[in-house]
């Protein structure tokens, strides 16, 4: 631990031991995650729409996609971005030949919480700030 020079109550300098400031690191991490959530939501929406497009074809067209797969409305679902739970609307896909709903792989992958990668957050912070 490093020693830090601080000004005491009678305006006299004194040295104290400095511990790690976990609250600062924690708050910075939470702020970065919250700042990245809108970008993450846009990427999730694009990925979900691409998967639905591959299964059913273009919206309002009768061609493309897998045989018997159709769009079937949407429903609210919860996904996790890092360790935060967020509710979004997910398009439903139905297989009319088997008369069952087709689960989306992207939605399944985002159903479990994950910890934010420390290396990724450091790279983002170093890319945004001018200092370490």
Helix content: 25-40%
Shape: elongated
Count of DSSP-assigned helices: 3
The spatial strand order of the largest sheet comes to 3-4-5
Based on secondary structure, the structural category is alpha+beta
Q: Could you tell me the radius of gyration in angstroms? A: 24 Å
Low-confidence stretches: none
**Average pLDDT level:** 79
For the sheet with most strands, the description reads:
3 strands, antiparallel
Explain this structure.
This protein is of the alpha+beta class and 132 residues long. The protein has one domain. The protein contains three helices and five strands. The strands form two sheets. The chain has a three-stranded antiparallel β-sheet with strand order 3-4-5, covered by helices on one side.
Summarize the structure.
The chain is α+β, with helices and mostly antiparallel strands and 132 residues long. It contains 3 helices and 5 strands.
Secondary-structure blueprint of this entry?
Elements lengths: L2 E5 L5 E5 L4 H35 L12 E13 L2 E12 L4 E3 L2 H5 L8 H11 L4
Entry keywords:
132 residues; alpha+beta; three-stranded antiparallel β-sheet; two-stranded antiparallel ribbon; 3 helices; 29% strand
